Amino acid sequence: MKLWHSFKKELKLASQSFYFYIEFITAIIILAVLLFAVPENFATDRTEYIAFDVPAAYEEHIRGILLEDDLDGKSAMVEIKSNRQLYQAELIEEEDKKVYILETEAEVKQLAEDKRKLGVVITTNDQGIFYRYYVQGYESDRFKNTLQIIHIKDAEVLKGEMDQQDVRPLLTGFTPLNDRENAIPPLLVLNGSLMGFFVIAAYIFLDKQEGVIKAYAVTAAAVWQYLLSKVGVLLLTTIISSLIIVIPIMGLQLNYPLLILFLLTTGFFGSSLGLLLASFYHNIMQSFGALFTLMMGLSIPSISYYIASWEPVWVRYIPTYAMIQGFKEIIVDNQSISYVLMASLGFFVTGLVLFIIANQ
To answer: What is the pLDDT of residues 62-105, one digit of tens each?
Structure first.
């Protein structure tokens, strides 16, 4: 009863503070970005700039090949503006890329540099036709190697060999997430655990300045009840704000009891970590360096999530990595309930240990 009374009092007091509404405001901003700025599937159109330095007959032959894949079967003259310069180009628009044919190699090189796109010059020497590519430097070795070998054999021969390759999916019977849904897991971690970690520390520093914690020493209430009531307020706001994000995007296709369980355990871990950090400082200004460093460190797995090619082993030992994977397991069709339950248990036990230390 004392704990419940303390929770209601903290909820009432928190609702009068700006910090209480931070998570709701963040959730609404995240939802607006997902709905209006993030498409369900990002466009994968490529842009290429091409110039010819070959005999006219061969140039016409290449143009004819490109026009075969044009959406309406004919090119269009367009102007490209770059760094206050206008370039005249012939546009051939295919289903997955746009090809701009320019007059000179200098124009191709300049546009490839300005627009950060691929540039190609088709020219000749004593040995025949060859291709000069202008790339940006961040391309993978596989892509660069492909450019070196793609013209060694006839395109039709390469296409035939690729069609003969046996491709077998490792997993079947599930619907992949679209780009909007795929963005949800890291955002839930940000809005839940990381925001809870920051907000509960702010609550504690505010109460320290007002002498609330010292006042508990002369009351019948235990400090752990005061701390747990703070955690309870944060968990309630985390669940509500997370549902604000998830329901409009995912609808009713989720296992919501499993989602709420994971929100509770990860939120408890983040809140306990915030309590522990707040116990070492007197105010938020003193803790800013540690608070900022810890939040940046916990955000690293989000980078690994969005850049799949970058995932060093040590990233997997950061707690937020398991949080992101857990939320992703919840929203996919072929979810691994055992992984979510084991991760929930781990975060609850770890959060409990941190809470006990913070209480001491």
So the answer is: 888 888 878 787 888 888 888 878 888 888 888 778 889 898 88
Closest CA to 305 of 287, 286, 320: 320
- HEC sequence for 318-332: CHHHHHHHHHHHHHC
Reported confidence tier of residue 359, pLDDT bands at 50, 70, 90 = confident
Q: Are 227 and 275 in contact (CB under 8 A)?
A: yes
- CA separation for the pair 192, 206 (Å, rounded): 21
pTM, two decimals, is 0.73
Assigned token pair, 328: 């992703």
CA neighbours closer than 13 Å in the CB half-sphere of residue 242: 30
Nearest to 27 by CA among 166, 191, 152: 191
> For residues 67 and 235, what is the distance between their CA atoms, to the nearest angstrom?
59
Query: How far apart, in Å, do the first and last CA atoms of the chain sit?
Result: 23
Sequence-separated contacts (24+) of 205-210 with Cβ below 8 Å: 205/278, 205/281, 205/282, 205/283, 205/284, 205/287, 206/17, 206/19, 208/278, 208/282, 208/283, 209/283
